[in-house]
Design goal:
By secondary structure, the protein is mainly α. The protein has ten helices and no strands.
């Protein structure tokens, strides 16, 4: 059973995924179907499916997986209006987790440093379900960084809006704000990836 940082159980279920998850998949494809990962050309939906897969493998409930699919929807595809649609379709819990997992809903987005400092401060205050989604998101992203470095080498760092050093600072800081008890498997995987990222040229 996945546990939160305070030892209480996360929302979980062993039931099969149902119609709500199918509806979330449809909405995810509608919102992100034309979006590509930064400079890689990989459809962005691959990332969202990957994050949902990671939380499901941790035993999370369907609503947590739905929020994982939609965790970038409000931030990247319509802000508060999109979040209101998510609330109507999937309920207050899903909408709250999507909001908590978002860097910002403001357009234009604040500067990178401001967003990341705010996000790091907000993670420990978020619901355990949202924290799990954010941890899974960072695991997926760090794995992608390592895989892309194997493909294109140090040119990878040119894709980011900040320097390699600031990117590594952010990922190291994530390890300091996530509690390992939330998901030892995902936390340890993030730590492994961050160690490898530090060795990249």
């Amino acid at each position: 059973m996945p546990l939160s940082y305070d030892g209480s159980p996360l929302s979980q279920s062993s039931a099969p995924l149902g119609e709500r998850f199918e509806q979330a998949l449809e909405l995810t494809c509608r919102l992100h179907g034309r979006q590509l990962r930064k400079a890689s050309g990989v459809p962005y939906v691959a990332h969202l499916l990957g994050v949902a897969s990671l939380v499901l493998e941790e035993g999370a409930a369907e609503d947590v997986a739905i929020a994982a699919l939609l965790h970038d929807a409000a931030e990247d595809q319509g802000g508060e209006e999109t979040l209101s649609g998510i609330r109507r379709a999937f309920g207050e819990d899903v909408a709250r987790w999507v909001r908590q997992a978002s860097d910002t809903l403001v357009k234009p987005k604040p500067a990178w440093e401001e967003r990341k400092h705010h996000h790091l401060a907000a993670i420990p205050m978020a619901d355990r379900e949202a924290q799990l989604i954010m941890l899974a998101d960072k695991v997926y992203n760090s794995r992608s960084i390592l895989a892309d470095h194997r493909r294109i080498g140090s040119a990878l760092w040119e894709r980011f809006s900040v320097s390699r050093e600031r990117t590594l600072w952010y990922y190291q800081s994530l390890l300091e704000v996530f509690d390992r008890q939330l998901s030892p498997i995902l936390y340890d995987e993030l730590a492994r990836c961050v160690r490898r990222m530090k060795d990249l040229p």
